[in-house]
Amino acid sequence: MAPTDVMDKLVSLAKRRGFVFQSSEIYGGLGSVWDYGPLGVELKRNIKDRWWRAMVQQRDDIEGLDAAILMHPKVWEASGHIAGFTDPLVDCKQCKNRFRADDERLKGPPGAPDTACPVCGNRGTLTAPRMFNLMFKTFMGPVEEAAAVVYLRPETAQGIYVNYLNVLQASRQKIPFGIAQIGKAFRNEITPGNFIFRTREFEQMEMQFFVKPGTEDEWFEFWRAARMQWHQDLGVRQEKLRFHAHTKDELAHYAKAAYDIEYEFPFGWHEFEGVHNRTDFDLSRHQQFSGKKLEYVETATNERFVPCVVETSVGADRTALAVLCDAYHEEEVAGEKRVVLRLHPSLAPVKAAVFPLVNKEGMPEFARRLYHDLRARFNAFYDDSGSIGRRYRRQDEAGTPFGVTVDGQTLQDGTVTVRDRDTLVQVRVAADQLGGHLSERLAA
Ligand code: ATP
């Protein structure tokens, strides 16, 4: 399949089955903003839950945080976002379109009389590049004046830095330790696109690990490996994952080293997580701008230092896209085309669907009881409409690992069939042991 075909199919499946809708669609949509529907919200929640379990709950040395989106404007001066979070942009005076100055479609320097606009084709209509800040601005309080400007955060990390001392004192952690958070971030991206890959509102899952200067390289290697493993544990195919080491040109001026974790999307290899060795830049800057000491005092040695930071930063939406791309399969089963999402069971929005084979002879009542039992353990679904083949296919498209059918034999011997989404193998299981049976297979 051509890459664009795969994306078209995925976008259409996502809409049809309720994973992702365009924001404000009945008004024509809002550029590069997306809403998660009933299945999508479960998928994304499962991704975030797995991250939270691995990064916070299963570690003694990481604490959770949920900082507000709005922050003191000085935060963004200290972080460098007001001065540096900019892209050079070019406007076409004729058609009013706007491009990044490094847009590959521009043949020739923008601003030069011969350079043509890549959209309307007119020559000499492009302005010279101008810097454009990617942060969304708004006003706090009743008066729209310069003093009231606040920003929607373009990353969650700053909420962690400014709470570093609070968390350290409240949790009684010792260095090395980390703070993790999941939350929305906003960037007024100039060239958003590729569905939920690059959007203007998105969710990040970030962890800042505070370490003693001199130990940051070891921790950087540790987190780089741990984060790659996490993606593999989600079931993402290994051959679709790779590291990309930042070159000198790509590296932020304060960073010692950085790796992107890339996935081979249908539109090419792209970053969906960054692991960064950030030196003591962040806390030093906040110390300087706030005037508050952010040093750590090591009890054993009485040594004082500003900790270095190793950061892991991954997008929940980009992970959802990587997982969906990886799971999407088309195949032929008994001469018919089947679309199946081979999602890792822990990520699947619905874990098991229960079907009465026909809507008579007590099958629906039995199936409903079963469904209610299963629902107490995990997200289950009941469906009694359409042929059994169609019901299976609907669940295959939703990525549901198991289909449970109540049939004639159920009423005689109390067993049901369990169909495996991937192998299509069906086994009979006693209905009173079904919950345990499925829970075990889901955890395997
Ligand atoms: P890119 O170069 O793709 O814009 P970035 O290097 O600016 O990404 P970071 O600032 O390192 O990204 O953000 C960390 C993670 O946050 C990214 O790996 C990605 O998963 C997610 N992310 C960043 N920008 C967006 C966006 N506009 N839409 C969706 N996810 C995003």
Keywords:
single chain, 444 residues, alpha+beta, seven-stranded mixed β-sheet, five-stranded mixed β-sheet, binds adenosine-5'-triphosphate
Write the layout of secondary structure elements.
Elements: H1 3-16, E1 20-22, E2 34-36, H2 38-57, E3 62-65, H3 73-79, H4 81-84, E4 86-91, E5 98-100, E6 130-133, E7 136-139, E8 149-152, H5 157-162, H6 164-171, E9 177-186, E10 201-211, H7 216-233, E11 241-245, E12 257-265, E13 268-277, H8 281-290, E14 296-297, E15 304-305, E16 308-315, H9 316-327, E17 328-333, E18 336-341, E19 352-356, H10 363-375, E20 380-382, H11 388-398, E21 402-406, H12 408-413, E22 415-420, E23 426-430, H13 434-443
Which hetero compounds are present in the coordinates? adenosine-5'-triphosphate
The end-to-end span amounts to 32 Å
Strand-residue proportion: 25-35%
- Shape annotation: globular
What structural category arises from helix and sheet content? alpha+beta
Task: Describe this protein's structure.
The protein has 13 helices and 23 strands. The chain has 444 residues and is α+β, with helices and mostly antiparallel strands. Strand 14 and strand 15 form a beta hairpin. Helix 2 crosses helix 9 and helix 3 packs across helix 8. The longest helix is centred in the first third of the chain and has 20 residues. The site of adenosine-5'-triphosphate has 16 residues, from strand 10, strand 13, strand 16 and helix 9.
In short:
The chain has 13 helices and 23 strands. With 444 residues, it is an alpha+beta fold. α2 packs across α9.
